[in-house]
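Working notes for the structural subgroup meeting. M.R. asked for a predicted model of this chain before we commit to crystallization trials. I am recording the input and output together here so anyone reviewing the notebook later can reproduce the run.

Input as submitted:
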Amino acid sequence: MHFLASIVSLICLVNVSGLNIGDMAPALEDTLWIKGSAPVFEKQFTVVEVWATWCSVCRFEASHLTRLQQFYGESVKIVGISDEPSSDIARYVRGMGDEIGYSIGKVSKELRSLYMKGVDGIPQAFLVNQEGFMIWSGHPMDLDEILDKALAGTLDIKKLKRISGLEKKLKETLNTGNLDVIGQVADALLMEDPVHERALDVRGVVAKRQKDTAAFRAMYDRIDVAGLRGEKANRLAWKLVTDKNLPFRHLKAALELAAHSVKMEPENGTFAVTYARVQYCMGNIREAIKWQKTAIAFDPFEPAFDATLQYYLEIEDLRRSEKASHL
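Returned structure, recorded in token form:
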């Protein structure tokens, strides 16, 4: 990818909210609730997700948020808000059925803008504490660890403020196009949060432009894999094992991350697919076949899983034929 295009895409990735940690979260009193009920900020932790019916990533995150709502129960209230016409939202919600297991509301454009000031893309999530203050904002995929810490009382607000400040600085720096400075700010952010995925992506682009495989590998080697949730470990492993730039496929880190994810959730088909891909890249075709079959057993209706299995089986057949021809 051309460097300028890479930077533009990364600017969009680094979403920084105009709401600061510690600001009072905008009230949702005038919201029309299409599904579920209004949150009471003072009663529980509240997640406010800004989304839209046209957003494909939002559709994927709906299942994720539903799982979180089911897991945390009354301790957390999850709501999704959109400023689209209520008829469009209602039609979408009906079509999703049980895939959306949390509250959905239609808000005014003005209220949406209060949450989304300074943010370039959706979905974007905001965590509000029992006093009504915003204590975190970011991509919904990062909510798992944040919610765990919030409920355990171990969320480091001062650290989150430092991270938020560095995120804003990183976005400002990306606009300059200065590789060295961008890399320095991304490194500072990764020192605060070694698994900050946008910082990893930004630092990765810089490392590739500078052909610095050592720097690229070092940032993944610093990650405490044991402390990761399976979903994040799987995402990182997949990135590392499918990078089109072969010198930046960090197989050792990918193996550790993928092994951790399948250990955390041994019946997750998507995790098994990633582990199979790692084994394939390592040349362990039989292990790749074994884990791809495992993935299909857990998710038999995913056609891509079977197509990949057929590819692995073809490689095994070719190896067997090649071996026989040399006897």
